[in-house]
């Protein structure tokens, strides 16, 4: 394919602007952790959008804040470096709030960045057409933007359009990550590690290097109380190893599940439903295709 495009986009915006939720909507699966509390996104998180014509790697930054301390300044310098490295910056401005000093501060920072900036009016579902038009006008007066796109990550309004617009700013190039890879955010790696630790407890000698743990998905459950469905695959090489992990009548796997769940809940700060699946992948360590699927 000659017309394939690939590259990086970075989400910026004040706390609670809807960056994580929009990242999830673009990727089509929940990868980032969202919450009502501001500043939950401490790490740079990547979600990957795979399309037949493009691959888009989304980098979710902690947000640009006005520096009050040296650490703040360093952080902002880091964020500006990230912004200069990406192919396109997505600047989120929540439609349910007026453009304010925080947005103007970020806009001023973005004016110093060479990458094209797409301004996005997020949470468009929360306001009427008249207010949305006013918001878009206020955004247009904030700086020079390559595009201005209203979206709603909640009802899906214009999410496809935004993906097309972002992809339009990516350079031609091959896919950067293997298909099916959703994220390499630190939380996912740590969730896998917690499950691995629990699964190896007491049987380490019987499963030397034979266990690969892959987080399949982390999905927020709809409902009044925050809850994540975490689905994890455990790959072993032989049926005998599968029997060890599962235990008599599944007793051991249940213990592994509750032990890992406690750690994951502490890590993510929310209730978790942990769904563990044990699979035999014969000789996975020697099979490059299987290794790729497991993220090695
Ligand atoms: N109604 C509506 N609410 C949204 C939408 N997008 C995000 N929200 C809500 O806005 C809040 C903040 O969303 P996040 O995605 O966590 O915002 P963020 O910019 O990543 O926040 P930080 O991590 O603090 O920087 C959450 O309660 C979301 O449910 C949207 O399109 N519509």
From TrEMBL:
Protein name in the entry: GTPase Era
Classify the source by domain of life: Bacteria
Originating species: Pengzhenrongella frigida
Sequence segments annotated as region (G1): 13-20
**What keywords were assigned to this record?**
Cell membrane, Cytoplasm, GTP-binding, Membrane, Nucleotide-binding, Ribosome biogenesis, RNA-binding, rRNA-binding
What GO CC annotations are associated with the protein?
cytosol; plasma membrane
Entry's CDD domains? Answer: Era, KH-II_Era
**Function of this protein?**
An essential GTPase that binds both GDP and GTP, with rapid nucleotide exchange. Plays a role in 16S rRNA processing and 30S ribosomal subunit biogenesis and possibly also in cell cycle regulation and energy metabolism.
């Amino acid at each position: 394919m000659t017309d394939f495009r690939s590259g990086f986009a970075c989400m910026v915006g004040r706390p609670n602007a809807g960056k994580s939720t929009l990242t999830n909507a673009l990727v089509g699966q929940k990868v980032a952790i969202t919450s009502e509390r501001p500043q939950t996104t401490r790490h740079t998180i990547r979600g990957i959008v795979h399309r037949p014509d493009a691959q888009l790697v989304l980098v979710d930054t902690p947000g640009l804040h006005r520096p009050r301390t040296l650490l703040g300044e360093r952080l902002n310098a880091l964020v500006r470096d990230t912004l200069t490295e990406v192919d396109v910056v997505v600047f989120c401005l929540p439609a349910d709030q007026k453009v304010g000093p925080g947005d103007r501060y970020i806009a001023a920072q973005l004016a110093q960045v060479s990458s094209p900036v797409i301004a996005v009016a997020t949470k468009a579902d929360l306001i009427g057409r008249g207010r949305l038009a006013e918001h878009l006008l206020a955004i247009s007066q904030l700086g020079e933007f390559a595009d201005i796109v209203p979206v709603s990550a909640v009802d899906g309004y214009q999410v496809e359009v935004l993906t097309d617009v972002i992809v339009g700013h990516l350079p031609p190039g091959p896919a950067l990550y293997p298909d099916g890879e959703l994220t390499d955010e630190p939380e996912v790696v740590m969730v896998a590690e917690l499950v691995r630790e629990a699964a190896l407890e007491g049987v380490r000698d019987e499963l030397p290097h034979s266990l690969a743990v892959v987080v399949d998905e982390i999905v927020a459950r709809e409902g009044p109380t925050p809850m994540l469905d975490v689905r994890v695959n455990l790959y072993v090489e032989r049926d005998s190893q599968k029997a060890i992990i599962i235990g008599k009548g599944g007793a051991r796997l249940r213990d592994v599940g509750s032990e890992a769940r406690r750690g994951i809940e502490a890590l993510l700060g929310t209730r978790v439903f942990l769904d563990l699946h044990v699979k035999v992948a014969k000789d996975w360590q020697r099979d490059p295709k299987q290794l790729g699927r497991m993220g090695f």
